[in-house]
Amino acid sequence: MFKNTTRNGPKIVVFITVGKQTNEPGSASLVEAMRSLNEYNAKVFVVGVGKVPTVWELEPIVGRMHNIIFAPSFAELKERSNPIARYIRRNSGEIFPHLFCSRQVL
């Protein structure tokens, strides 16, 4: 995913999910799938849509509960996209202080 970027360059990833992790044989866990993002110092946020995603399932992906956002539906996610983008910008630290605006996200 980040093969054309430097490991230490700024990166923000927004992972949107609507369901539970699959338990099929051979499938990677969400934590394993997200491990490479940590190697590239990516700041990860998760948006859980609907009632199925839970904090206990999503928190290991991001490492802190403050990086988890919930929306009851995709329609509601669309309505909340600007506030969510502002929240991500405020909580992404100094990654993109002047380049990152809500119109460029979601």
Question: How many structural domains does the protein architecture include?
Answer: 1
Number of strands: 3
Q: What does the radius of gyration come to? A: 14 Å
Q: Helical percent range?
A: 25-40%
Which class best fits the helix and strand makeup?
alpha/beta
Average pLDDT, all residues: 78
Low-pLDDT windows of residues: 97-106
Order of H and E elements: EHEHEHH
Text of the CATH class? Alpha Beta
Strand order of the largest sheet: 1-2-3
Q: Tell me what the CATH architecture is.
A: 3-Layer(aba) Sandwich
Which oligomeric form is depicted?
A: single chain
How far apart, in Å, are the first and last alpha carbons? Answer: 18 Å
How would you characterize this protein structure?
It is a single chain. This protein is α/β, with parallel strands linked by helices. It has one domain (12-21, 28-104): 3-Layer(aba) Sandwich (Rossmann fold), CATH 3.40.50.410. Helices cover 32% and strands 16% of the residues. The chain is built from four helices and three strands. The protein has helices at 30-39, 55-62, 74-79, 81-90, and strands at residues 12-17, 43-49, 68-71. Strands 1-2-3 form a three-stranded parallel β-sheet. Strand 2 (43-49), helix 2 and strand 3 (68-71) form a beta-alpha-beta unit.
